[in-house]
Write a structure and sequence with these properties.
270 residues; globular; alpha+beta; 15-stranded mixed beta sheet; outer membrane lipoprotein receptor (LolB), chain A
């Protein structure tokens, strides 16, 4: 037997083991975008195809510090800043709460306490009622598969762009103070935002939004599953959408809601 054959066999096995242990690297497209501004324009151009959206039979699974709640919702979204979230009690058709916002102001009525909250639609106020840590405009953008630009402007600076070869996606990121980073991953095929994450100076997670189970609706794909994680507030909730309807007629009256008679009115600005 040729003495070199066992040696060649060992070398081949070693090379195969090394290749198996190496992470798969996905090359960038031939026409890969290099400038953050150009990618941002592509992300926005995709969202421009959608004017409104109705999410039906949404199952919201909510994990808090000491509780888990599963409810059903109807979510209406209309550009640029209109949002309506109708929440029903599990196993019933009874409405538990109704949240509406036109982007400037919001109103929330909780039926269990008959309390009506209203005020300016700041990210801080919205976060108390809808734990997404986003502005009203960013909520609309994110639900449409776009970018949370207000969040980037609020806490980030000097964006940069790189190709993430492990994921096969663009990574758009901006440094945050002090020493953290806000990142989002964008698909090169249709410029949809599939994930957003913020980490601190130690690399610990501050905030994350992820998507899954994307389905095509005409010329646009949207996620069926969305998840928000906010560790500092011990929040982790997901939205599993039963049916998505795009570019439906949503009159602006749907996004206005006066206080019901007899309700306790709370001005959150005060």
């Amino acid at each position: 037997m040729n003495a070199t054959r066992p040696r060649l066999l060992l070398l081949s096995l070693a090379a195969a083991a090394l290749l198996a242990g190496c992470p798969h690297r996905i090359p960038p497209p031939d026409d890969a975008i290099a400038e953050p501004k150009v990618l941002a324009e592509a992300v926005d151009a995709r969202v421009d195809q959608i004017e409104s959206m109705r999410l039906k039979n949404v199952v919201l699974d909510y994990y808090g510090a000491d509780q888990r709640v599963k409810v059903r919702q109807l979510v209406l979204v209309k550009k640029p800043t209109f949002l309506r979230v109708q929440t029903r009690a599990p196993g019933t058709e009874e409405i538990m709460s109704l949240l509406v916002s036109d982007g400037t102001t919001f109103a929330l009525h909780r039926r269990d306490t008959n309390t009506y909250y209203h005020g300016t639609a700041t990210p801080e106020h919205i976060a108390r009622l809808l734990p997404v840590d986003l502005s009203a405009r960013d909520v609309v953008r994110v639900m449409l598969g776009g970018a949370p630009w207000d969040r980037f402007r609020r806490i980030g600076d000097a964006p940069r762009l790189e190709w993430d070869a492990k994921r096969g996606k663009y990574r758009y990121e901006a440094p945050t103070d002090p020493g953290g980073v806000l990142s989002m991953w964008v698909r090169p095929t249709d410029y949809a935002v599939v994930e957003v994450a913020q980490t601190d100076a130690d690399g610990e997670l501050v905030y994350r939004y992820t998507t899954d189970d994307w389905k095509r609706h005409g010329t646009v794909a949207l996620p069926t599953y969305r998840r928000f994680v906010w560790p500092a507030r011990h929040l982790d909730f997901s939205m599993d959408v039963g049916e998505t309807q795009l570019n439906v007629d949503l009159p602006e009256m749907l996004f206005k809601f006066p206080p019901p008679p007899g309700s306790q009115i709370v001005d959150v600005d005060g």
